[in-house]
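<instruction>
Derive C-alpha cells from the sequence
<data>
Labelled lines for chain and fold
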Amino acid sequence: MNTPLLDGPARPLESVHAKFIVELVLGIDNPRQTAIAPQQLRFRERLMNDIMAQAQLRSWSMVDALSENPAMRVGLADKLASTLDPGYLALTKMGHHLHILQQKGNETPGVLQLYATTGERFLRRAEHKQRALSRRGLMVQAGEHSEQVFTRWHAGSYSGWSLAGRCFVALEELRWGAFGDACRLATGEAKALLMDNLRATATQYLAQSINAAPATRHFYHQWLSTPVTPAPMDHKEMLCWLGSACDSERHPVSWSVTQTWQTIALGMPRLCSAMRLAVAMVDEIFQEENFFTVA
C-alpha cells in the first residue's frame, strides 16, 4: 500500500493544500488544461484521496464525477477552503476565475448562481486577509515567512528533491504564502527590495547545497539528479505537480527542474551556476503574469 503523500513529500509543504484547491476551480472550463501523463493522473488521484481523508470528506473522493461536474468541484473547493484556509492568493485566484465563469454564462442558472455566490465569498475572505496582512506589516510578514522557509531548507526538510528542486519547492512555498502576498500588495519599491533579497538568499542556499561558490558552473545533471530516498517516485511526481504551471518557453529553468519526465527545455543552460539557476527561478516564478495563473 502506498504511504499517504501527506505523510511523505507533502509533509513539510504548506502550499499543497492551496494549489490543490485552486486546481479544482481553475479546472472548470479551462482551455489551458492539456493532456496529463498517466503517472500524473494517478498521482493526482492519490493526492485527492489523501486530502479528502485528512479533511474528513471521503465521500467526495470521486475523481471522475468531479471532472465532469462543475458544481461538485466548486462545492468541494468551498468546503476545503473552509477547512484548510488556503490563503490570500488561492482565494483571489478562485474568486476571479468563478467571476469569469459566471460572466460567460455557459451553465444552468443554478450553477451560475453558485459561481457568483461562492466567488464573492472567496473574494471577501481575500479582502479580510489583505487587511490583516497590512495591519501586521507586509514586510515583517514577508521576512518571517522567508526565514521560516529557508530554515526548513537548511534543516533538510526538502532533501528528498534534487538540489535545484529544493530551491523550486522553497520558492513555491514563498509564492503561495505571506511572502508572495507581500510582493503583490506592497509598493513597487518594497517589492523590488523583497525580490533582491530573495535572489540573494536563494543563490546562497543553492550554492551551499553543492559546496561551491555562487558563480561556479556545474553540468545541469548535477543540479537535477534526484537523491536516493524512500519513495523517490513520490518526490518526483510531487515536484512535477508543484511545477505544473510551468511552461517550457516562458519558464525554461523551472520547467526543466520540475518536469523531469520531459526533455529539458531549450532555454535551460547546460552549464549553470547556483546564481544563474536561483535568479532564473525567482524571476520565472514571481514574474507578474504568472502570479495569478495556475495549470
Strands lie at 217-219, 271-273. Confidence is low (pLDDT under 50) at residues 289-295. The longest strand covers residues 217-219. Residues 204 and 214 are 7 Å apart (CA to CA).
